[in-house]
Specification:
The complex is a heterodimer.
Chain A: H1 2-32, H2 41-45, H3 79-85, E1 94-98, E2 101-102, E3 106-108, E4 117-118, H4 120-133, E5 139-143, H5 149-154, E6 160-161, H6 169-172, E7 175-177, E8 182-184, E9 186-191, E10 208-211, H7 215-226, E11 238-239, H8 242-250, E12 256-260, H9 261-270, E13 274-277, E14 284-286, E15 289-291, H10 295-310, H11 313-325
Parallel strand pairs in A: 1-5, 1-6, 10-11, 10-12
Antiparallel strand pairs in A: 2-3, 3-4, 6-15, 7-15, 8-14, 9-12, 9-13
Chain B: H1 11-14, H2 35-38, H3 49-61, H4 64-130, H5 137-160, H6 166-194, H7 198-236, H8 241-265, H9 271-332, E1 337-340, E2 343-346, H10 347-369, H11 373-401, H12 405-413, H13 419-451, H14 455-479
Antiparallel strand pairs in B: 1-2
Helix pairs in contact in B: 3-4, 4-5, 4-7, 4-8, 4-9, 4-13, 4-14, 5-6, 6-7, 8-9, 9-10, 9-13, 9-14, 10-11, 11-12, 11-13
Classes of the chains: A alpha/beta, B mainly alpha.
């Protein structure tokens, strides 16, 4: 039969054609993925991890797993810790880059004596200082704007940055991160009366404020290009610190703010007329950032974090964050740390 | 003026004395220009008034009385012209000197005051912020006073700005920004009291508005007003060469006329002409001496007043900027850095170093310009305070760099032994020096302006007298021909 002959011929060619189709599809996926966020998970699973669009790196780093690339904890001293310990007199301090504008994370409380820096991040800093130098107050705080966090570490102006800093692949190229100590996600903040409903089409023709150099800005720019965010959304307002966005929002210069949910909640806590709109649309982990070659310090901080997660984390959460993020800390708890196997 | 025959010289020949006989002198052919007057019914070919006047003049010049009339007319005209030009040139100079004293200098001073008030308000606000929720009454009062004087300064500046000028636009801009700024500071204060860090964000926003929009505008205004002051000086001081030249010419012609009279009559004195010469000479002398005194007064007021004032204002602004940077370095806590030649510095500390260097240079210059005890003493006091300030600042900065934030804060805004005392000392001394130099300026410029008092009117009166004298003198000679 002609038909059966044709079928057998097809069968013969079928594998080749299927392979050709797959070969054509693979680069198509590479091109399409950044534009189609709802890309089926199995496509990503299909050995394509290395090419999942903008977040992918040559070394196979994926932002969602970037927090698993930290070395295993260790209490051993190394050159970096030795150098810190070698500081003498008034200079025997851990120099830490922090924020002084993130309510309940790292902020100057004007109503304490000397307007002390306080917050969740600051508690962690004291804990690390106590472990390394034996004195929780042996810290020199340096306020660092969002876009200066990496340069400050690279230039050696600070030993570490504990400043609501998200672990990303891009940042891992410049600095080393500890294991995650907090989990959050980007969220939209807008006035309660605003028609904005969340991270969606309601942002069309709206001005959105972000901090320069933040993950929020990077995500928004990528999504705007990728079409997930309306093209009419105005992202031109960038400020040195996420809190400056609240000022712009209150003055009516912008319509919404996008920042980490944890920080957005801090902003909402300072102004009862604004609220978080919609659910978090990303998952991010905060880590302590250090110099790339300071392996001993990273391991040391990881050891502190192991201990801290067990004792201290919850107390600190209750002290600072339960009022703004809710009493239940489950959503904010970092995952059990996964360490890089080699080195 | 250059054609006397056309206007004032014409009437006398046409008058009764005209060719009216002059019986003593015969054999003068009938002036050809006269027939029309004799026989008005027969108009000859029409000629222009000028041609006719020139004709008459030529005719008159052929007779001695005619010549005398022309001479008299020229003399009167020269003296009157001299008086008029003197009155005009001195009154513009006197008006410019008055502007220097009562308009442009006060406005330039006012503009400097606006700048100072704004910068000081910003510094006071940041000090208040550093002090935390318990902002003290002193820094609050200082801030409020600064805002009030800036607002008052703007009203004065607005009242004196020419409509449609660049200054008016600048002032309007500042008037709009000032309440905006105040609103931001009030919000910062409120949030600060509640313990919310967004208060600090408002302060930074207000500071940005001040540094990037308001202070540059205030500086523009100051520059514009200073240009106006320089222009007024330029109008008040140049020599009135035209008046002086005319005066000398009038004197020369008067001398020649007297010499001519002497040659013809052997009479040494002609009272009228002597009186005219005297009046002209007095007016000329008054003009030259008065102007020289005024000029030296004004130049002195510039040399000893304005130059010192400019240097002192700049020094005061430098000290304010230095103080602002000192405060902001603690507000920012190392958040702002600049990289120069590969080394990274705290932006505000670097700004402080630059400003304090400008202050030092300014004070040295001010000390050099100060020419009496009243001017030198406050500048020296300011220099002493600045030296202590630098020392204390170095200690405070060392504390800050060692991470002893609280100690650094105490050494900057604390009550005793803090750099705040030194800054206040410098500011007070500079205010005193400025008040002194301003008094110097007002005295010198006032003297200068007073030297020209009555000069325009006096010159006019003397010129009229001189002209009358010349006419009388010539008339006396003329009457001898009747």
């Amino acid at each position: 039969m002609d038909v059966s002959r044709a079928r057998s011929a097809l069968r013969g060619w079928g594998g080749v054609v299927a392979m050709a189709v797959l070969c054509a599809l693979a680069p198509a996926f590479v091109l399409l993925l950044p534009c189609t966020p709802q890309a089926p998970d199995d496509a990503r699973q299909a050995g394509q991890k290395a090419v999942t669009g903008a977040q992918a790196r040559a070394d196979g780093c994926v932002d969602a797993e970037a927090h698993e690339r930290t070395p295993a904890p260790s209490g051993a001293d190394g050159p970096t810790i030795d150098a810190i310990k070698a500081r003498t007199g008034a200079k025997r301090k851990l120099i830490v880059g922090v924020d002084q504008n993130s309510y309940r994370w790292g902020y100057r409380n004007p109503n304490t004596e000397g307007a002390r820096l306080e917050g969740f991040d600051i508690d962690l800093v004291h804990r690390i200082a106590e472990d390394i130098l034996g004195d929780p107050d042996a810290v020199q705080f340096k306020a660092i704007p969002t876009n200066q966090r990496i340069p400050a570490i690279e230039d050696g102006r600070v030993d570490m940055v504990v400043r609501t800093m998200t672990i990303t692949c891009g940042r891992l190229e410049h600095v080393a991160f500890s294991a995650p100590y907090f989990k959050t996600g980007q969220q939209v903040l807008a006035p309660k009366s605003s028609p904005i409903t969340g991270y969606d089409a309601s942002l069309a023709h709206k001005k959105v404020c972000t901090a320069a150099g933040s993950t929020a800005l990077a995500k928004l720019e990528a999504d705007k290009k990728g079409g997930r965010l309306p093209a009419t959304t105005d992202l031109s307002t960038t400020v040195p610190n996420q809190l400056d966005c609240l000022v712009r929002l209150q003055l009516g210069e912008v319509d919404a703010v996008v920042t980490d949910g944890a920080l957005a909640a801090s902003q909402a806590a300072q102004d009862p007329t604004v609220e978080l709109k919609g659910a978090p649309f990303t998952t991010e982990y905060y880590g302590v950032a250090m110099k790339k070659d300071a392996g001993d310090l990273v391991r040391r901080v990881n050891r502190v974090l192991v201990d801290y997660r067990a004792h201290g984390w919850q107390t600190s959460y209750d002290d600072w964050l339960s009022a703004t993020l809710g009493r239940d800390s489950a959503a904010s708890k970092p995952p059990a740390p996964q360490y890089r196997r080699s080195s | 003026m250059t054609h006397p025959p056309k206007s004032s010289a014409a009437p006398p020949p046409a008058g009764s004395a005209g060719a009216a006989g002059v019986p003593g002198i015969p054999a003068q052919p009938g002036p050809p220009g006269f027939p029309p007057a004799v026989a008005p019914g027969v108009p000859p070919a029409r000629r222009t008034a000028f041609a006719e006047g020139a004709e008459r003049l030529r005719a008159a010049a052929t007779t001695e009385p005619g010549r005398l009339r022309i001479i008299g007319a020229v003399l009167a005209l020269l003296v009157v012209a001299f008086g008029a030009v003197t009155a005009w040139q001195t009154s513009t100079r006197s008006a410019a000197a008055d502007d220097v004293l009562h308009r442009s200098q006060p406005l330039s001073y006012g503009a400097a005051g606006i700048y100072r008030s704004l910068a000081d308000a910003n510094t006071a606000a940041s000090s208040g912020f550093l002090a935390g929720g318990q902002e003290n009454a002193q820094s609050r009062d200082r801030y409020e006073k600064d805002i009030r004087s800036a607002a008052a300064g703007l009203v004065t500046a607005a009242a004196n700005a020419e409509p449609g000028s660049a200054s008016e636009e600048t002032i309007a801009g500042l008037n709009r920004l000032l309440p905006e700024y105040k609103g931001l500071i009030e919000r910062a204060r409120t949030y600060n009291r509640q313990g919310y860090p967004v208060g600090g964000a408002y302060l930074r926003y207000a500071n940005e508005k001040m540094q990037k929009e308001m202070l540059p505008a205030a500086e523009d205004l100051y520059t514009t007003e200073n240009r106006r002051l320089d222009a007024d000086y330029a109008d008040a001081t140049p020599y009135p060469w035209v008046a002086i030249g005319l005066g000398l010419l009038a004197l020369a012609v008067l001398g020649w006329a007297q010499h001519r009279t002497y040659r013809r009559t052997h009479r040494v004195l002609n009272h009228g002409l002597v009186a005219a010469s005297a009046a002209t000479a007095v007016a000329l002398l008054w003009l030259v001496v008065g102007h020289m005194v005024a000029r030296s007064g004004l130049d002195g007021s510039y040399e000893h007043g304005i130059r010192s004032l400019n240097v002192l204002h700049d020094a005061r602004i430098a000290s304010l900027k230095a103080r602002g940077n000192e405060n902001l370095s603690l507000v920012a806590r190392g958040a702002e850095t600049v990289t120069v030649d590969g080394t990274t510095y705290d932006a505000y500390y670097r700004g402080f170093d630059r400003d304090i260097a400008v202050l030092g240079k300014g004070l040295t210059e001010a000390a050099r310009l100060a020419d009496d005890q009243g001017g030198t003493a406050p500048v020296e006091a300011a220099e002493d305070d600045m030296a202590v300030w630098k020392q204390r600042h170095a200690t405070a900065r060392a504390e800050d760099e060692n991470g002893n934030y609280q100690q650094a804060l105490d050494k900057v805004i604390g009550a005793k032994g803090a750099t705040a005392e030194c800054f206040d000392g410098v500011d007070r001394s500079l205010a005193r020096a400025i008040a002194h130099e301003r008094a110097e300026f007002q005295r010198a410029a006032g003297d200068g302006r007073d030297a020209m008092t009555g000069l325009p009117e006096g010159a006019a009166v003397l010129a009229v007298l001189g002209a009358a004298g010349a006419v009388a003198g010539i008339g006396r000679r003329l009457s001898e021909y009747r």
